[in-house]
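Late entry, evening session. Most of the bench is empty. Finally got around to the prediction I had been postponing all week. Sequence below, unchanged from the version circulated by S.P.
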Amino acid sequence: MATKIRLQRHGRKNYAFYPIVIADSRAPRDGKFIERIGSYNPNTNPATVTLNFERALYWVNCGAQPTDTVRAILSNEGVLLMKHLQGGVKKGAFDEAEAQRRFEAWKNQKNAAADAFKAAENNKKNEAAKQRMEEEKAKNNAKAEAVAAKKAELAAAAAEAAAAETAEEAPAAEAAE
């Protein structure tokens, strides 16, 4: 039986998520499968992948053929690298400990790159938030100055009106005396 590692489509319209399954190549896309080994959710940023590493490695070693998308997922998760390293151990190029060391080094490098990307994204967000805050403060200061100027104009106009009124009352008061 020819087995495939492929994605099944679940979810609603325009919001799909995909279980990663082992299935007979003749079975329908969303039909009968042998084993579910993980899931892929492209709706999150970054896309979420959960994978049973040991079972995926087992099926790849058994000869299950991944589809193009699943091959990219398996490569990104390190399953294909581990298969490659196990092939090197079988040929006697290096021992199992060296294979594990190389895999761990690759995994640490990948995690460091992912952490650096996340940190850069957070810095971008924080800088954008600071810039928005500065712009908002500048707008608020401009509005406050405009309001203060208008209040000063109104106060000056009121003072002029009061002065004019007192000036009119003073000659009238003198005339009354």
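Two things to note before I forget:
The chain has two domains: 3-93, 95-164.
Residues 3-93 form a domain with the S16 Ribosomal Protein; Chain: A; fold (CATH 3.30.1320.10).
Will write this up properly tomorrow.
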